[in-house]
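Field log, afternoon session.

UNIT: design team B
ACTIVITY: writing a sequence onto a fixed backbone
BACKBONE:
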């Protein structure tokens, strides 16, 4: 495509200019009606009066153009900016190779004004609504002290927090901008560090970053075939590939989203429109979750305008799976009370435990009561690539919709979710865009399934390259091996802790391992957490499942390998020894 000869393009026929001289070149097509008559030039002031009202100042336009052209970078400028940006990236990534990355967790110091470390026998770690701890420095969470990591970075002002470079009338140098941005590395969790074993850590690969750079540089409108067919095809290829992983038919449809919650919301919107088409029935509609379902699912109800809907939290069994017998009883009771069961959510990989709900049994109940079945596979979904885990996803192919996060299992940057709906027509019916008059000349084909008709989003970021480039470059086998390694490491950690005195450990299903000291207070287990994490080598948290507090480890970062797990195991052993617990027989039952 010739991007220099704009005057030959229909869209650019109004862009003829000659403002470097005192003479104005009159072109009847240069200005749309009504400004095509009665031109008067004033060479001294360089003003043009169109009709009798509009005054056009050529000098002013020239100054504006000179300023606006600042945005048009040269190849040399782009190379310089990229080189300097890469230096900052390399400096950050070097931190991920250190045992104790600065800015993630700073080893505590016994200085004035700071509490000393908890010594053996001094279990003073408190729990309560305003004293929930997430790391080794006794950092508390409360309304004004929300943590993002264990090194006292708070939502108000932390010890390392600085104000970002302000938005100013005039710009500054790229060096100053990058120097300011790089400070973010000292005020964040080191998500990609091999010792980050909390929450569900995010990871990103170099090809994914390059994919984002390419997407932002080419900047296609990727939600409509008429705007960029190839961009649409790239997204559709990813969606169909993921659909095949779960056994969906080719008639499925979906979209890349900003994350799992938005993917779930798109799916729930489709479920609402199909199962509860009348808003007057929202208040009697019932959503069924397990007690371990991610909180983002219920959150979607408010966004969907179904705040008054009923939410039933179904207890889990001794394997931390939704208890289908109790689910059935809940539904039967609701039907008898003239309520409308419309949606049940099964999870393949709960965030707390990594457990997998019995999808086939839940599907049978959903079918019996004409309910929509949605599967939350955001954390665990891409383990379907692993042969050893495929059996865990039995029945997912019958679900009406699925949400899965490439920014978890495919190591894409944060902000990459994916929604799938088995019957793509239902998804399209819930989201089809009715174009405004300004798009009436756009050529359309009813057979084209545009992404903008499969989600509520418009003008979304072109997310496909961040997923596609790593898959194309490394191949699916590399991701399969990386995920399988995490499953094996979780088993390895379980078996090593299983034989450790004073430790009770829960057998993992995926890559999450729960353990605790049984028979002691929650404060004692929190003290164990502090002892393990106090030097900043590892970041783990606690969770409470069925009323029991556990230390929770998730092995998910692609940089985490056996040597890291070995170091962690030794940390646990040393921490238990330091706590000088009485001799007891160990217990490993979950």
């Amino acid at each position: 495509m010739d991007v220099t000869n704009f005057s030959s393009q229909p869209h650019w026929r109004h862009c003829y200019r000659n403002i470097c001289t005192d003479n104005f070149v009159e072109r009847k097509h240069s200005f749309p009606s009504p400004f095509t008559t009665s031109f008067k030039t004033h060479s001294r002031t360089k003003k043009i009066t169109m009709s009798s009202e509009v005054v056009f100042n050529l000098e002013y336009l020239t100054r504006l153009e000179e300023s606006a052209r600042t945005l048009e970078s040269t190849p040399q400028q782009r190379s310089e900016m990229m080189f300097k940006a890469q230096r900052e990236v390399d400096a950050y990534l070097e931190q991920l190779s250190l045992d104790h990355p600065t800015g993630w967790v700073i080893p505590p110091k016994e200085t004035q004004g700071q509490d000393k470390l908890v010594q053996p026998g001094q279990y003073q770690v408190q729990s309560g609504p305003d004293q929930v701890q997430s790391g080794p420095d006794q950092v508390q969470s409360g309304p004004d002290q929300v943590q993002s990591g264990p090194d006292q970075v708070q939502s108000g002002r932390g010890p390392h927090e600085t104000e970002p470079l302000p938005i100013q009338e005039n710009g500054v140098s790229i060096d100053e901008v990058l120097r300011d941005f790089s400070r973010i590395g000292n005020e964040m969790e080191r998500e990609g560090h091999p010792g980050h074993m909390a929450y569900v850590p995010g990871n990103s690969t170099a090809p994914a970053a390059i994919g984002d750079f390419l997407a932002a540089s080419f900047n296609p409108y990727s939600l409509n075939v008429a705007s960029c067919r190839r961009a649409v095809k790239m997204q559709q290829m990813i969606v169909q590939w993921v659909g095949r992983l779960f056994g969906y038919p080719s008639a499925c449809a979906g979209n890349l989203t900003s994350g799992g919650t938005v993917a779930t919301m798109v799916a729930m919107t489709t479920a609402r429109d199909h199962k509860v088409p009348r808003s007057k029935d929202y208040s009697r509609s019932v959503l069924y979750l397990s007690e371990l379902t991610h909180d983002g699912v219920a959150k979607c109800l408010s966004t969907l305008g179904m705040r008054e809907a009923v939410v039933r939290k179904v207890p889990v069994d001794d394997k931390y799976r939704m208890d289908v017998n109790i689910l059935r009883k809940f539904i039967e009771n609701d039907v008898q009370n003239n309520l409308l069961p419309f949606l049940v959510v099964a999870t393949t990989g709960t965030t707390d435990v990594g457990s997998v709900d019995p999808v086939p049994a839940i599907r049978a109940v959903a079918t019996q009561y004409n309910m929509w079945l949605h599967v939350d596979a955001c954390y665990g979904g891409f383990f379907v690539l692993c042969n050893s885990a495929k059996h865990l996803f039995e029945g997912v192919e019958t679900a009406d919709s699925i949400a899965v996060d490439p920014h978890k299992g495919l190591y894409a940057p944060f902000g990459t979710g994916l929604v799938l709906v088995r019957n793509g027509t239902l998804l399209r019916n819930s989201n089809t865009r009715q174009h405004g008059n300004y798009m009436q000349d756009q050529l359309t084909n009813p057979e084209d399934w545009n992404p903008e008709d499969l989600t509520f989003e418009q003008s979304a970021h072109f997310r496909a390259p961040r997923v596609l480039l790593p898959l194309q470059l490394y191949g699916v086998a590399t991701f399969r091996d990386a995920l399988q390694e995490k499953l094996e490491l979780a088993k390895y950690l379980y078996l090593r802790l299983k034989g450790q005195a004073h430790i009770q450990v829960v057998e993992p299903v995926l890559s999450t391992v729960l353990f605790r000291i049984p028979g002691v207070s929650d404060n004692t287990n929190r003290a164990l957490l502090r002892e393990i994490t106090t030097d900043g080598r590892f970041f783990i948290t606690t969770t409470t499942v069925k009323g029991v507090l556990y230390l929770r480890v998730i092995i998910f970062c692609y940089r985490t390998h056996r040597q890291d797990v070995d170091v962690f195991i030794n940390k646990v052993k040393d921490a238990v020894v330091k706590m000088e617990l009485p001799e007891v027989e160990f217990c490993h039952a979950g």
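LOG NOTE: The longest helix spans residues 476-498.
NEXT ACTIVITY: expression trials, pending approval
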